[in-house]
Amino acid sequence: MTTVITVENRKGGVAKTTTALTLGVGLARHSQESGGGNVLIIDMDPQGDAARGLGLEPEGQCISHVLLGDGSVQQLRENVIWADRSESGGPNRPNLYVLPATDQLSEAKEDILTEIALLAARSMRTRRSGEGRHLVNLLEDKLGLAKEAFDFIIIDCPPTLDMLQQAIHQFADYAIVPVKVDYHGASATGRHTKNIIDDQAAGIEISIFAIVPTFVQANLRLTRSMMDQLTQMYGKKTIAMPIPHTVRVAEAPASGGLTVIEYQPDSPAAIAYQDLIDRVYAQLQGDD
Prior knowledge:
- This protein has a single domain (3-101, 139-287), classed as Rossmann fold (3-Layer(aba) Sandwich).
- It is 49% helix and 14% strand.
- The chain has 13 helices and seven strands.
- Helix 9 (183-201) links the parallel strand 6 (174-180) and strand 7 (207-214).
- The termini are close together.
């Protein structure tokens, strides 16, 4: 059974892509060691940082082709990049794949939203409400076959989900929400998680798996105050081990497209991320 996890927060600069890539690499390792299947990272941000962060360069591949296509296996294969780079001296990732995003995704969103607006207008005229749900099921329609090929799918979300929010949540099982531990970060996270709760109330079956504190400086009084606030808001079990503020996280992708667990696995940040990875793998494999 495939598990789909979004990494999301409407606040930018909270380490969403770093968290998504590290989680993807870590889950792929677990799956490989246990004889399991493959892991797919889907980039939904037109900036396209997911592929570059792993040292990969799209050669025409983009999720936009899939979202505007027919949802076929062939179309999915043509746009997915294999993340293993062992033959060129890079990291060994035999069961990790990336569906990248490029600037074309921005144009594709406009085309998709135009199509949905036409369907919504037609739905209002004909009162056929089924057409109005086309957008909600967009990812299910276009990426449903990916669930047959991958054990885990990680979606790296942009700060603004716009009208794709419900489609992403409809496709996913869980959300992981990184939050920069400062006043503005905690406030924005509260507004963002309300969006998830609202979608739950609308009948979409997604739940918050973890809140991940990032850029944490434990010696600051403000940090301790914000951590207490997050614990009160979400409960102790939902708060993941804090990711400490360290240059090692930023150095990793610049050192040949690595994640921190590949670059310096004994660093405090890598240990904290590994704890999140182990927790996700153990709990969700148990659910299966």
